[in-house]
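Researcher: Here's a chain I'd like modeled. Treat it as a single chain, no partners, no ligands.
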Amino acid sequence: PVLGASAGSSGLALLGAAAFGDREFHRCLSASLGFAAFPIKDRYGLRYAASNTVGDAVMLCSTVLGPLRDAVKARRKP
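Model: Modeled as a single isolated chain. Structure tokens:
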């Protein structure tokens, strides 16, 4: 890769940032999708031309992982 990044490593970085609560890094990685993943806005919403089913699943998981983890952690008994 010209920029020293790849879709696979970026996806795993998104998951890691979400899992460990690094919201700033997750926000920055998510913003980079607007440049590198070729976003397409149509009547169905936003999608990425450079993504596939696995990439979509990784993005979804990284989006809900942090908040979900936080909710489970909050319900845990001391």
